Amino acid sequence: MVAPAGSFFQEAALPEQRLVEGVAFPAVLVPSDDATAAGGGLDAFLDAVRSERASTVEPLLRGAGAVLLRGFPARAAADFDRAVDAFGYPELPYVGGAAPRSNVVGRVFTANESPPDQKIPFHHEMAQVPTFPAKLFFFCEVEPKSGGETPIVLSHYVYKRMKEKAAKLGMKLEWTEDGVKTIMGPIPAVKWDESRGRKIWFNSMVAAYTGWKDARNDPVRAVTFGDGSPLPADVIAGCGEILEQECVAVPWRQGDILLIDNWAVLHSRRSFEPPRRILASLCK
């Protein structure tokens, strides 16, 4: 895929990508031939982010929901912090989130620090609180020895699959004026993506039911029907199967930056064999 003349970026293809309604997911950007020939370092990359964000990166993000930047000269946490700053999105403080995280530098935090043998189920970041990030950045500082991918899946397509599942069970989805899904079956918490004009599966239902089990949290009680009765385990399992069927999991490479539109994409984490160090930054 040829880059426009003078561009620092060019689109690329990976075997893990999939076409979703004709769009490559996720979009992938690598250094253009011009950028490689010029031997651009970190400062050149940051300048390119500032100058080409609106013309190159954001159209891909809007269309695909996620953009993987691979092969660029960000190698350490401080580099990633500068890259996030170059994108110019306002920072969102990590308030109300459920994941264990530690601040590393500036706007950069560790990703979820759950033990490596545990999978983190699909979720939208901070979907359980009123103020959630619009965009997420992930950065691979240390590649996993094995596993440890961050699978992603498009919310609107998951919604379509969930709707078909509900129809087969004889259930009907209702849409209320305030944009909150009326719970009639196994599909709660649907939101309206105003910018794209479509319904999305925006919740952490599967994550709440299959994870977060401790002295204070009972997964069976964490997700219920509208009348308070628990959801059957097989319904949750069916939702999880759809998420897995539709996801894309690209193995991390050191220096990868993954930009996710939190309105469009759910993400998760597979178990891994250390070492692995993935950093994150949340934006409004």
From TrEMBL:
Pfam families: TauD (PF02668). The keyword Oxidoreductase applies. One of its GO terms (molecular function) is oxidoreductase activity. Residues 49-279 form the TauD/TfdA-like domain. Coiled coil: none annotated. Keywords: Oxidoreductase. It comes from the Eukaryota. This is TauD/TfdA-like domain-containing protein. It comes from Oryza nivara. The lineage of its organism: Eukaryota, Viridiplantae, Streptophyta, Embryophyta, Tracheophyta.
